[in-house]
Amino acid sequence: MNNKVAVIIGGGQTLGAFLSKGLAENGYRVAVADLNIINAEKVANEIMGNNFVAKGFYVDATNEESVIKLAEAVDSYFGRVDLVVYSAGIAKASPITQFQLNDFELSVKVNLTGYFLCAREFAKLMIREGIKGRIMQINSKSGKVGSKHNTGYSAAKFGGVGLTQSLALDLAEHGITVHSLMLGNLLQSPMFQSLIPQYAKKLGVPEDEVEQLYIDKVPLKRGCEYQDVLNVLLFYASEQAAYCTGQSINITGGQVMF
């Protein structure tokens, strides 16, 4: 029986919840960590309702003490960590001349600093147990190509690529691999849907035409789906990918190819 433990930060909703459930179905015991503890516990309860093992945890990934407490709590409950998925994220769109400093700083804290803190604390547990674990950041194509009106998000995601490569170098001697998953547009996600009014204004089109415009940019002619992300995550978490580390892996339908 698979005894492995996966920790999903931002696992209480949307993509994070989907990945939490998908990892459980693939044999992981799952720690669902989220800023919204009610959501985290709800997802964990749904997983347990399907006869898998899960527990919900509170974390503010931007707060060092909170992340340290999360690592201690997961360690106390499960006794090990094999896979960490950093799925917390936030995006605020605005032209640069109107972009507020607090929005920029919040984006860096949630998208980058939180990733650093979680990777640091859970790497300690992997090293202590001699586990050749996996650390995965949910990133974006905006971490490889700039994104108009999304300076805070894109800057933080570019930073995530550099952090991933540096973590991979730091942790290679322990057999721990680190990757960023560079997602295309999750058209059905609440984050994308919330930005449609701003994107419509940016593109100069009606709101109901925004999704199709983004689909038209993709060679494979569809948006990125949650299942696409889980498929790639499962491979890079597996032993089959043990010789790969420090990579920024495109899941963009061909929209970004480097």
TrEMBL record:
Name residues in a coiled coil.
none
- Keywords annotated in UniProt: Oxidoreductase
Q: Gene3D superfamilies, per this entry?
A: NAD(P)-binding Rossmann-like Domain
Q: Which domain of life is it from?
A: Bacteria
Q: What is its EC number?
A: 1.1.1.140
Q: Which InterPro entries match?
A: NAD(P)-bd_dom_sf (IPR036291), Sc_DH/Rdtase_CS (IPR020904), SDR_fam (IPR002347)
Using the UniProt record, name the top-level EC class of this enzyme in a single word. Answer: oxidoreductase
Oxidoreductase keyword on record: yes
Gene Ontology terms, MF aspect: sorbitol-6-phosphate 2-dehydrogenase activity
A Pfam family: adh_short
Keyword GTP-binding tagged? no
The cross-references to PANTHER family, in alphabetical order and at most eight, read:
5-KETO-D-GLUCONATE 5-REDUCTASE, SHORT-CHAIN TYPE DEHYDROGENASE_REDUCTASE-RELATED
| Family, as annotated | Belongs to the short-chain dehydrogenases/reductases (SDR) family.
Full protein name: Sorbitol-6-phosphate 2-dehydrogenase
Q: Which organism is it from?
A: Phocoenobacter uteri
